[in-house]
Amino acid sequence: MEFICDKNRHLVCIPYSEQNLHKMASLLGIKSCWFHKTHYDIPARRIDEITKQCRVVSSKEVVRIIKHH
């Protein structure tokens, strides 16, 4: 599973699915309250830590991943 984020703290994964999003959050230690229907937000205090584990892409790319799953 690959972790993908943008500079707006939106976090998704490939392969994209709701099940994989929750698995990703569990692996990263992100609480379910950060889930927003199609993605997770990265908790502000953990931006640097989590971003280092992701491929950083544009917000448009995050939306493309979500829409084309």
Low-confidence stretches: none
Helix percent reads 25-40%
Mean pLDDT equals: 97
Structural class: alpha+beta
C-alpha Rg (nearest Å): 10 Å
Number of domains as seen in the coordinates: 1
The major beta sheet can be summarized as: 4 strands, mixed
Q: Tell me the strand order in the biggest sheet.
A: 3-2-1-4
Order of helices and strands: EEHEHEH
Calculate the terminal CA-CA distance, rounded to whole Å.
Answer: 14 Å
Number of alpha- plus pi-helical segments: 3
Total number of strands: 4
Q: Tell the overall outline.
A: globular
What can you tell me about this protein's structure?
It is a single chain. The protein is α+β, with helices and mostly antiparallel strands and 69 residues long. The chain has one domain (2-67). The chain has 3 helices and 4 strands. It has helices at residues 18-28, 47-51, 59-67; strands at residues 2-5, 10-14, 40-41, 55-56. The protein has a 4-stranded mixed beta sheet. The longest helix is centred in the middle third of the chain and has 11 residues, at 18-28. The chain is globular. The mean pLDDT is 97.
